[in-house]
Amino acid sequence: MRKFWGHLQTITRHKWKVTMLCFRCGLYKQGLLHDLSKYSPVEFWSGVRYFQGNRSPIDREKEVKGYSLGWLHHKGRNKHHWEYWLDNAYDGIKPLEMPIPYVVEMFCDRIAATQIYLKQACTDASAYEYLMNGKSHVVMHENTMALIEELLLRVKENGLDVTIQFIRRNVLKNK
Predict the structure, then answer these.
(1) Which of 159, 67, 139 is CA-nearest to residue 167?
(2) Is residue 70 in some structural domain?
(3) CB 61 within 8 A of CB 50
(4) Residue 58's Cα: distance from chain center in Å?
(5) Are 107 and 154 in contact (CB under 8 A)?
(6) How many domains, in total, are found in the chain?
(7) What is the pLDDT of residue 54?
(8) 95: which strand partners?
(9) Is residue 100 part of a domain?
(10) Which among 10, 40, 83, 168 is placed 20 to 30 Å from 4, CA to CA?
(11) What is the pLDDT of residue 67?
């Protein structure tokens, strides 16, 4: 029962944080719809089973089983994940450029995830450092990578409030 309530609380807190960040950026519909699939049976119950509280249960499930059905379900339904934008072309996997509103939602998702999992240890640099630590394993379109890297670096250097103003005034303007 502890894992059930812990997972439910974690995904709900995460969704709430992302929703509020999306609202601050002007992405109201995306904020409301963000990660609703986490409450579907395939995602929710695998999340409960592999819940640890300090990191995504998806990572633990992959360690145990070598894959995660919950993750396969999630990334195929949520356009703010770069993995959604991969195509199996004749000459290999091809990353497609993400539309800017989904890159901004990915930004909100990464900020909220570091806040949820790192708690008091979270700093303005946390999401940027997480991206840079795993960058070699990411198959993201170069323009998408450049934008998410720029936004997370702006948080590290200038703080979240300044970066959100930049997003509203420059990144999402006329989008």
Answers:
(1) 159
(2) no
(3) yes
(4) 13
(5) no
(6) 1
(7) 84
(8) 86
(9) yes
(10) 83
(11) 95
Residue 145 tokens read as 């990578």
Residue 41 located in a structural domain: no
d(CA 2, CA 49) in angstroms, rounded, equals 11
Residues of the chain with pLDDT under 50: none
And the tokens for 136? 């070699």
Is residue 95 included in any domain, yes or no?
A: yes
C-alpha–C-alpha distance, residues 45 and 12, integer Å: 14
Query: Distances in Å between the alpha carbon of 115 and those of 25, 123, 124, 174?
Result: 18, 8, 10, 30
User: Counting beta carbons within 10 angstroms of the beta carbon of residue 126, is it exposed (0 to 12), middle (13 to 18) or buried (19 or more)?
Assistant: buried
List, for residues 118-168, the tens digit of each pLDDT value: 999 999 999 999 999 999 999 999 999 999 999 999 999 999 999 999 999
Give dist(CA 121, CA 89) in Å, integer. Answer: 41
Beta pairing partners, 87: 94
Helix H, strand E, coil C: the string for the chain is: CHHHHHHHHHHHHHHHHHHHHHHHHCCHHHHHHCCHHHHCHHHHHHHHHCCCCCCCHHHHHHHHHCCCHHHHHHHCCCCCCHHHHEEEECCEEEECCCCHHHHHHHHHHHHHHHHHHHHHHCCCCHHHHHHHHHHHHCCCCHHHHHHHHHHHHHHHHHCHHHHHHHHHHHHCCCC
> What is the domain extent for residue 104?
91-175
Kindly report the pTM of this predicted structure: 0.93
Q: Which pLDDT value is given to residue 71?
A: 95
Measured in whole angstroms, the distance separating CA 121 from the mean position of its chain's CA atoms is 19
